[in-house]
Every structure is written in structure tokens, then in C-alpha cells.
Design brief:
314 residues; membrane; two-stranded antiparallel ribbon; single chain; mainly alpha; globular; transmembrane; 2 strands; 3% strand; 9 helices
Length: 314
């Protein structure tokens, strides 16, 4: 498998080499990034209805209120769900248009079928929901089984919260990596959708560490831009220490920066997909049976060349 540093360097080189086209893709994704950045502060309150329902669900499942991880998780999930629903029209249009533009640029294809991306994106959403549901079911079973054996001390709750946070992070990180890989590979498939998602699951076998190493820098950058937006835009807006026009202009620039990192993330995922495909082809070529031919020179009066090989099966 290709070194993740080489993939990242090639991605950044391509990003800078085609910067004039990258800016076009970022401009297409700008409405989505602006909607996403604006939605997150408004859904950060713990008084939202989705948070209350998730909290009730966790309590009904038997999770104690002393499990701090599940309190934080229910809050973050409510924020993510609310923000995703709010930005769904922008995701299905501007974000997918931007990804289609970049994939067409990198692949050199004459056209990229938007509906394949759309089907794959919808399937990815259900896949991520299934990953979350599977993780919660696993935690529910583990918690109740351990409780039935008498593990109910405060130290147990702390240890269970930490281990649950670690396992949940691994599950969701792998789910996101598979979803991103499926999305960039969908234009090359025949129809997209669940078949592309299954293909991504097969491609990523044995390459999970590389995928996570590539996803970490871009996701940290996106998180940093989100924090910058909250500090520079939302904080100034609530404090009222600057003119609204200046805040709006700065917010637009930060949203554009967020869109640029989204484009870079698409480029990284595309080159990772190409690396996976190339590695699969190399493994197939290397795994083919070889026909060994033995050439023996016989020292006789008349020199002969004897070619010995496996007998034909037919």
C-alpha cells in the first residue's frame, strides 16, 4: 500500500496545481459550508427536543446519569442530527455538485453522473445511522450484562465510559472513511448506491490505518475552521463589539476556507481510492499462477537444449 504521506503530498500538489479550478469547486460548496457553520451554534443548546428525546432513550435503555460519556454523546448526536437535517438541501445540491466537479477534474472523465453520487450519499446516510445504532446496541448489551454481574461502582462507570468512547470513535471513524471512499468511487461504478458502499468495504480491507491517517489532517483542519468561526463570528455577533457587516464579511471568508478544506478532503479521498484500486490490481497480477520453464543444456556430442515444464492438463 502506498505511503499516506505520498498520497497527501500528491493531493496538496494537485490542489495547488489546479487552484483556479479548486476555487470554483469551493465557490460551489460555499452555500453548504456557510449553512453548516451557521447551524452548529444554534443547535448547541441542551434544551433542544432531539437532545431530550435522545436523553430519554438512553435512560430508558438503562444507562445511568452518572455515565458522563452518554450525556456528552446525546448532546453531540442531537447537534449533528439537527445540523444535518438543516443542511440537507445544501448537501444534496451544492456539496454534491462540488464533489462531482472535482471528481470529473481528477478522473478526466467526460461526465460525472450526479445521480450516482446522490444515491451513494443517501446510502451513506443510512449506513452511518446503522453504525451508530449498532454501537448503541453493543453498549446496551455490555452495560446490562456487566450490571447483572454486580458491576455498579463509580470506577466501573468511569472505565465503561472511557472504553465506550474509544470503541465508538473507532466505529464511527471507520464508517466515515468507508462512506467517503464510496462517494468518490461512485462515478466509476455502474449505478452507485449500496453496491458502491460494499465495494468500498472490500477495498479498505487491510488499509484502515492508511485511511485514518489520511482523514485525520483534513478533519482536524475542518474542526479548526469551525472553532475559528465560533470564536471570530458567533462570539463577536453575540457580544456586539463589531459591525454586523464586518462580521458577515469575515464569516464569508471563513466559510470559503471551510469549503476549500472540503475540496481538499475530496481530492485526498480520490487519490486514496486510486491507490486502493492500483494495489488491488497489483495483487491480482502477483497472485496469478506462473508457468515455470526449465532450460537444461545437455553436454553430449550434439548439444541439445531441453525445455522442461509442467505437463499439459489437456
Amino acid at each position: 500500500m502506498e505511503d499516506p504521506r505520498k498520497i497527501m503530498r500528491r493531493s496538496i500538489h494537485t490542489f495547488l496545481q489546479h487552484y483556479h479550478r479548486v476555487t470554483t469547486a469551493a465557490a460551489i460548496a460555499l452555500p453548504f459550508s456557510a449553512a453548516l457553520l451557521l447551524s452548529q451554534p444554534f443547535f448547541s443548546s441542551s434544551s433542544s427536543s432531539i437532545y431530550m428525546k435522545l436523553n430519554t432513550l438512553f435512560r430508558g435503555a438503562g444507562f445511568s446519569s452518572s455515565l458522563g460519556f452518554f450525556n456528552i454523546l446525546s448532546l453531540k448526536l442531537s447537534q449533528t442530527l439537527s445540523s444535518s437535517l438543516f443542511t440537507l438541501p445544501f448537501s444534496l445540491t451544492f456539496m454534491l455538485f462540488s464533489k462531482a466537479y472535482i471528481i470529473k477534474l481528477l478522473s478526466g472523465a467526460s461526465s460525472v453522473y450526479y445521480y450516482r453520487l446522490l444515491r451513494t450519499y443517501i446510502c451513506n446516510s443510512f449506513f452511518l445511522l446503522s453504525a451508530n445504532a449498532s454501537a448503541f446496541a453493543l453498549f446496551f448489551l455490555a452495560f446490562n450484562i456487566l450490571n447483572s454481574f454486580g458491576f455498579s461502582s463509580r470506577n466501573f462507570y468511569t472505565l465503561f465510559s472511557l472504553s465506550s468512547a474509544l470503541i465508538y470513535s473507532i466505529i464511527i471513524a471507520n464508517a466515515f472513511v468507508i462512506s467517503n471512499l464510496a462517494l468518490v468511487s461512485s462515478p466509476s461504478s455502474s449505478s452507485g448506491g449500496y453496491a458502491t458502499l460494499l465495494k468500498a468495504c472490500l477495498l479498505i480491507r487491510g488499509r484502515t490505518s492508511t485511511a485514518l491517517a489520511l482523514a485525520l489532517p483534513t478533519n482536524l483542519s475542518l474542526a479548526g475552521v469551525e472553532a475559528l468561526f465560533r470564536y471570530r463570528v458567533m462570539r463577536s455577533y453575540y457580544k456586539g463589539d463589531r459591525d454586523v457587516t464586518l462580521i458577515a464579511i469575515e464569516g464569508t471568508f471563513i466559510a470559503y476556507l471551510y469549503a476549500l478544506f472540503l475540496v481538499l478532503d475530496t481530492i485526498v479521498n480520490f487519490f486514496f481510492y486510486q491507490s486502493c484500486v492500483k494495489n488491488e490490481e497489483d495483487e491480482k497480477i502477483g497472485g496469478e499462477d506462473e508457468y515455470l520453464v526449465k532450460i537444461q543444456i545437455c553436454d553430449t556430442e550434439n548439444t541439445k537444449i531441453c525445455i522442461k515444464g509442467p505437463k499439459s492438463l489437456f
